From TrEMBL:
InterPro entries, per the entry: Znf_RING, Znf_RING-CH, Znf_RING/FYVE/PHD
Source species: Nelumbo nucifera
Listed PANTHER family: RING ZINC FINGER PROTEIN-RELATED
Keywords: Metal-binding, Zinc, Zinc-finger
Coiled coil (residue ranges): none
Gene3D superfamilies for the chain: Zinc/RING finger domain, C3HC4 (zinc finger) (3.30.40.10)
Pfam families assigned: zf-RING_2
Superkingdom of origin organism: Eukaryota
A molecular function GO annotation: zinc ion binding
Domain RING-type: 90-133
Keyword Zinc appears in the UniProt entry: yes
Name this protein carries in UniProt: RING-type domain-containing protein
Keyword Zinc belongs to the record: yes
Amino acid sequence: MGFPIGYTELFLPKLLIHTLSFLGFIRKFISWFFRFLGLGDFLESDIVWPDRPTHVPEFHSVSAILIREILPVVKFQDLVSTDGETPDSCAVCLYEFEGNEEIRRLTNCRHIFHRNCLDRWMDHDQKTCPLCRTPFIPDDMQEAFNERLWAASGIPDVYDQ
């Protein structure tokens, strides 16, 4: 038997392709016609394309900035000398750690990552370990963190008035 196929399902895609091809032909013809008349430079000079910015400013949320202040940055070589059981590679980028690279060690779960990898993770408003999803902020520091976050937001506290 087979599947029923309507006539419009076969006809409409072909019609769309032919219409787009015809519009492309008309565009090329108009472009050629204006160049033939010597107006091609006039048409092209009206369009001013903005330059693509070379540096896009990074967005850092207030919570990410505060978390960065809490999480220490150490050199990998210093971390290896104090702890014999450190992983060989970053779980975010999968590159191996090298001696002089900056590392962030999470206070709750003790996982380590390249500083840049974890900072990019936090820039996406993530507040948990990328590996085990343990919160960055320990429970005993959560209330102080929330107070600092509220103060940094610039919103006046209604209850303090």
